[in-house]
Amino acid sequence: MANNLLNTNAVVSGQVYMVELADGDLHSFRVLTETPTHFIFSYSTEGSNDVFEKSKSDIYGIYDVKEWLAAQEK
After folding, report:
1. What phi and psi, each to the nearest 5 degrees, are found at residue 15?
2. 9, 28, 38, 63: least buried by Cβ within 10 Å?
């Protein structure tokens, strides 16, 4: 299992992470910044960049992409 960075406060702005939402969806997002209650994320689709915020209570986990991929291979 990959280390859940949400629990360690080790999320670095500007990095891409695997983000697991409370509803079970898993996506790769870039963390733009963090507030006390929300993360601001961005992602790219077909040449466009979208930015959105997500409440920390709606996020189950944030994982390093390489660690997450390695954990899936086991």
Report:
1. -90, 155
2. 9
- What pTM value is reported for the model? 0.89
pLDDT digits (tens, 9 = 90+) for 19-54: 999 999 999 999 999 999 999 999 998 889 999 999
Q: pLDDT at position 74, please?
A: 74
d(CA 41, CA 13): 9
Contact (Cβ atoms closer than 8 angstroms) between residue 31 and residue 41:
yes
User: CA–CA separation, 23 vs 46, rounded Å?
Assistant: 25
Residues 49, 55, 60, 64, CA torsion sign: positive
Contacts of 32 (CB under 8 A, 6+ apart): 13, 14, 40, 41, 42, 51
